[in-house]
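Co-fold these.
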Amino acid sequence: MKKDFYEVLGIDKNASAEQIKKAYRKKAIEYHPDKNPGNKEAEENFKAAAEAYEILSDPDKRARYDQYGSAAFDGTGGFSGGGMNMDDIFSQFGDIFGGAFGGGFGGFGSGGGQRRMKGSNLRIKVKLTLEEIANGVEKKVKVKRKIQAKGVTFKTCPTCNGAGQVMKVTNTILGRMQTAATCHTCGGTGQIIESKPNHADAQGMVMEDETVSIKIPAGVVDGMQLKVTGKGNDAPGNNSIPGDLIVAIEEVEHETLKREGENLHLDLYISFAEAALGTSRDIETVSGKVRIKLEEGIQSGKILRLKGKGIPSINSYGNGDLLVHVNVWTPKTLNKEQRHFFEKSLTDENFIPHPEKSDKSFFEKVKDMFS
Ligand SMILES: [Zn+2]
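Predicted complex below.
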């Protein structure tokens, strides 16, 4: 870490302890996660300011920093540079803000310093056919969740008396300072286990199979992740919040249809004779079979657009299209009679290509498809 801690706080090298504290308070308010939800840059700045304050507010560390720079703290037990977590930062706040700003980051309740533990997320993959993706589907999946065993009882943590935090008093050059730290006995929940059934682990948890129903909207894309709130692992404690179930979508390749965003492509092969005489064909779509008509004299390479027979858009209204690519199959072998027929047709005016202006070239058709 090569940050200049003075620069981070916007102060000069001769700043007094009071100026350092004031500068940090300003930065902490400006970049506080509650004020900048989801803003990664603000979070980084918030952490950087806390790290800078951690060093510069301590006269010993500050002296070491002034002499050796941030290298003095890299990899040492005292400060690992960039290693501060949000709990450390918030526990520092008791001193800076007098408790007015505590708690409050991503699901930790602030009531009395008690922490609501959130369970870990579970991840599963769900395979979907193109038909399921096109129409939306409800899937039932079996997950193994860690949950609190039945019969577990809790009592108030004797170390922190249920507060979840313990106050530490340290003597510094600024006088006596009080900081709040997470209680190690209860991990911040304010409760410990009173009794639990034998099959539960030390935290009163057991693994259990649960069938979870997942509503998958139409139009999902391979690799997309859906969240089922509250269906992850439970966390220990009476008032904990369960984690989430993260569902990763996997699209199973279709036998005949190729997906391209919301559009689908189908290669259709017709015979020489069918192209010349015209025909009709039943083709498979994601919403059942559809009969299409091929005009007599249809050219190989023609693309028929079936409006709305593609995949629904997940973000807006409307469906993509199904694009049917017509391929005329040329016979690979001919018998004598057939050979004779084609040889005769070599000079036949009807068999000589003369594309009209309205027969778009392949490149124009491709351009059309994407417009
Ligand atoms: Zn405790």
